[in-house]
Amino acid sequence: NAGVTQTPKFRVLKTGQSMTLLCAQDMNHEYMYWYRQDPGMGLRLIHYSVGEGTTAKGEVPDGYNVSRLKKQNFLLGLESAAPSQTSVYFCASRPGLAGYEQFFGPGTRLTVL
Amino acid sequence: QKEVEQDPGPLSVPEGAIVSLNCTYSNSAFQYFMWYRQYSRKGPELLMYTYSSGNKEDGRFTAQVDKSSKYISLFIRDSQPSDSATYLCAMRTYSGGGADGLTFGKGTHLIIQP
What we know:
The structure holds two protein chains of two kinds.
Chain A: E1 4-7, E2 10-13, E3 19-25, E4 31-38, E5 42-49, E6 56-57, E7 65-67, E8 73-78, E9 87-94, E10 103-104, E11 108-112
Chain B: E1 4-5, E2 11-14, E3 19-25, E4 30-38, E5 45-51, E6 54-58, E7 61-66, E8 71-76, E9 85-93, E10 103-104, E11 108-113
Parallel strand pairs in B: 2-11
Antiparallel strand pairs in B: 1-3, 3-8, 4-5, 4-9, 6-7, 7-8, 9-10, 9-11
C-alpha cells in the first residue's frame, strides 16, 4: 500500500494563477482532509470530505475549493493564487467509523510570488 | 486563549535521557488524543492514539492523558538521535454531527544530542 500520496511535491505560482493539488489514498478510507501548515501557526484545516461526493469547510476555507468525485481522490483547487497561500499543504485520511486517527501524505510545498 | 497550547521549544536533551513532551487544552469536550512525529520536510506520522484519561505504552513511548487537568504528555525513554523531530499533539471531540477534523498544537521541536 502506498498510503496517502500527493501530487505535485513542489510548485511555484505567480499571483493570480490557478492550480489543483491532487491527493490519493489506497486504504479505502471514507474521510479525507486538506490542511495547511505555516510557521508559528501549526496545522489548520481547510476543507474535508466525509465521503464520495461530499465536502465541507474547515477553519480556513477562503480562496480554496475542493472536490471528491471518487472515494480515493480529494482535489484542492486554488482559483486565483495569492502570496498568503504560500504554505505546505498536507492531505490526510481516516477510516471513518473505525477510528479518528488520521494518516497524512508527504505534503506539497507551494510558493506564490 | 488557543484551544491547544504546546511549547515550541527547541527542547535539547542528551542521548539516552527520558523526554517529556506536553500539551494543555481548554475544551473539556476533547476525548480523543493523538501524538504525531514530523521529521523536517515530511508529513506527520501517527505515534500514539488514546481515548479519554489514562496511560498507553508502545515500546519506548508512553502517552498519558489527565482530563481533570486538561493536560496530555508523551514520554520517550532511552531517547535516540533518530527521535529528533517535531512532535505535534492533536485532539478532537466525539463526532456528533458537528465539524470534523483534529485540533493541533503547534508542535515541539526536539533535539537529541549524540
